[in-house]
Design goal:
An eight-stranded parallel β-sheet has the order 8-15-16-17-18-19-20-21. Strands 3-2-7-22-23-24 form a six-stranded mixed β-sheet, with no helix packed on it. Strand 16, helix 13 (311-321) and strand 17 form a beta-alpha-beta unit. Helix 14 (366-378) packs across helix 15 (390-407). Mean pLDDT is 91; it is low at 1-49. The chain is α/β, with parallel strands linked by helices. It has 23 helices and 24 strands. The structure holds zinc ion. Zinc ion is lined by residues 118, 120, 481.
């Protein structure tokens, strides 16, 4: 179907279509599920004005529905943006009419489109347009990549980039302003580390930001200085310090921002991601809105708002952006409890095992976050707190406990983003408090190389503790933190199964007792993420009445080895009943 049809059909019709689809259910599933409700199953629709012909039918498919009562099917019918029937080939044939497009899937594996519960599309988009330093394995390679990019920037023009990771380099030392100066001194430069919590500036950028040996650390941040000379080394830790330089960088033009965002959205679609829960900014929201108006938004976006904004502003954004549009809405308010493990800015309960001088940084004081959280909760906001270290997680859980105590019980679905390192006694608190653990399995593919050094063997047992959380009954939602990690969900599935790097280290997996089954991993990545944005029953399963958001994969991931899963490609992505991507 054509773009825009989904929205036209949707407006005000959710309830109608859901109810209708109960009657229109065709095939074994309907019979099995509803026993006596034979009218729809056998006699066809009897409801006046009901649609009996599908726009799109997929047959001879190997469908994994994620619907626990009927996990497997062969065919499905789509009308407008919705799945109208799921079942056997024979049963679904009834939906084929003159105008129906029928696709023979030749046994291809089909499941619900992925819902990435944690992305940053604006950053991902802009990152596509800046110097990419990912994968540089030495300081020399890092400098080489910057040197190659010099030609794209005029003297005086800001050069920005991201993705370097000194833990990959033999000496594992941070780069310095002097390393950058050796490449160019006539363009201000600022390059963020892969985790976005540390950046390195050259001398011209430091000068422009008036950072000298006398500049004190801003609260919550750190300006690294040479122990001998007292001069800033160029390394800035955490937003508070990095912002001194970032504030000097001109905003991207609207044209540039849109170009980047369109690239990021294509990336999502090509990777089978049909919903994205995004923390960008209002400029980005405006771009999504523009794309939506033009019928070009093919990923459903829930946009988070900054937790620390004044409440009145949050309410203004919420009413402006809305909370119910199926393609674009505002979501939770997101705050940051701490930084990252890689940069040792994650807040731990005791010092880092590989640097006893630090326990990391809490970015918000417990009393402060508690006061804001209670106030925002009272205004009906869902809250999402970024927490990596065990201390940050404990403060986040304490905050949610306080909310319930003060404001009473309700279905609030507060979330902890990352929930990376947990004290054993805190794991059961998630389920008890109904707190969603929004986690990114593919982080482990990168972090496994140094996480145990940072944490030591004892604490490592509570790291990326998917299985323990799941066993306690915690609702998980999976994502990637794109662009921190690639948006490709196959990396996450591989991580769930192995807890090894793509190269297979450590053999048998890091803390292998925390691996989870492929079915559960898929569920957390689809239905789990849908639940985290109050969209369960609307998306996340291949089920009549839900949105036709689907992905077709090159392999049956339920029956494939982890190595094959890692290489599995997306053959087709369907969003709102429309084929939005097809591989060549
Ligand atoms: Zn993030």
């Amino acid at each position: 179907m054509k773009g825009g049809g989904g929205r036209k059909l949707f407006s005000g019709r959710w309830a109608t279509v859901s109810a209708l689809s109960l009657f229109l259910l065709v095939g074994e599933h309907a019979l099995g599920a509803r026993g006596g409700m034979k009218r729809g199953a056998e006699g066809g629709p009897s409801t006046a004005g009901a649609k009996t012909v599908a726009d799109l039918v997929l047959v001879h498919a190997n469908i994994y529905t994620l619907d626990r009562s009927h996990p497997h099917a062969e065919a499905l019918a789509i009308s407008g943006p919705f799945i109208t029937a799921v079942g056997g080939n024979k049963a679904i044939e009834k939906w084929i009419g003159a105008g129906t497009r029928v696709i023979d899937m030749h046994g291809a594996f089909v499941t619900a489109g992925f819902n990435d519960a944690h992305v940053h599309l604006r950053e991902a988009g802009l990152a596509k347009l800046v110097v990419k330093l990912n994968g540089a394995r030495t300081l020399n390679e890092f400098e080489g990549k910057i040197r190659v990019a010099l030609a794209d920037y005029a003297p005086g023009e800001w050069m920005t980039g991201e993705g370097w990771d000194h833990t990959l380099w033999p000496a594992q030392l941070f780069p310095t302003r002097y390393d950058l100066d050796s490449v160019a001194r006539d363009r201000p430069m600022f390059f963020e580390r892969v985790d976005g919590h540390i950046g390195v500036a050259n001398s011209l950028a430091l000068k422009d930001a008036h950072i000298t040996r006398d500049t004190p650390d801003p609260p919550g941040g750190h300006i690294m200085k040479d122990a001998r000379t007292g001069e800033p080394t160029g390394i800035l830790e955490e937003d508070a310090a990095m912002n001194l330089v970032i504030a000097r960088i001109p905003e991207p033009s609207a044209e540039k921002l849109r170009r980047g965002i369109e690239m990021a959205l294509s990336d999502a679609t090509e990777n089978g991601v049909t919903s994205a829960q995004d923390f960008s900014n209002w400029d980005a929201f405006r771009v999504y809105e523009e794309l939506k108006k033009e019928g070009k938004l093919k990923v459903r976006i829930s946009e988070w708002l900054p937790f620390e904004l004044p409440l009145a502003e949050l309410e203004k954004y919420r009413s402006e952006g809305g909370t119910t549009d199926p393609w674009l809405k505002t979501g939770p308010v997101k705050g940051f409890m701490d930084g990252s493990l890689g940069s040792r800015t994650a807040a731990l309960l005791s010092p880092y095992s590989d640097d006893p001088s630090t326990e990391g940084l809490l970015r918000m004081k417990p009393e402060y976050v508690r006061r804001l959280a209670i106030e925002r909760d009272r205004a009906g906001f869902q809250i999402a707190l970024h927490a990596i270290g065990d201390r940050a997680n404990r403060v986040a859980l304490d905050t949610y406990e306080a909310i319930e105590e003060i404001n009473g019980k309700r279905d609030r679905r507060d979330r902890i983003e990352h929930a990376q390192v947990l004290a054993p006694e805190d794991i059961s608190r998630f389920a008890k408090l109904d707190v969603i653990a929004s986690m990114q399995p593919s982080h482990i593919l990168t972090d496994v190389r140094w996480a145990e050094r940072r944490l030591g063997p004892e604490r490592s047992r509570g790291a990326y503790a998917w299985h323990s959380l799941e066993s306690e009954g915690t609702q998980l939602a999976f994502g990637t933190d794109y662009p921190v990690e690639a948006i490709n969900p196959m990396r996450g599935l591989y991580a769930c199964l192995t807890r090894e790097t793509p190269e297979g280290a450590p053999k048998g997996g890091w803390e292998p007792q925390e691996r989870i089954k492929i079915e559960d991993c898929l569920r957390d990545y689809t239905a789990g993420s849908a639940y985290a944005e109050f969209e369960e029953g609307k998306k996340g399963e291949v089920k009549a009445g839900e949105y036709a958001d689907l992905v077709v994969l090159s392999a049956d991931v339920l029956k494939s080895s982890a190595a094959v899963i890692l290489q599995t490609r997306v053959k087709m992505t369907i969003a709102g009943g429309e084929i939005v991507y097809q591989s060549k």
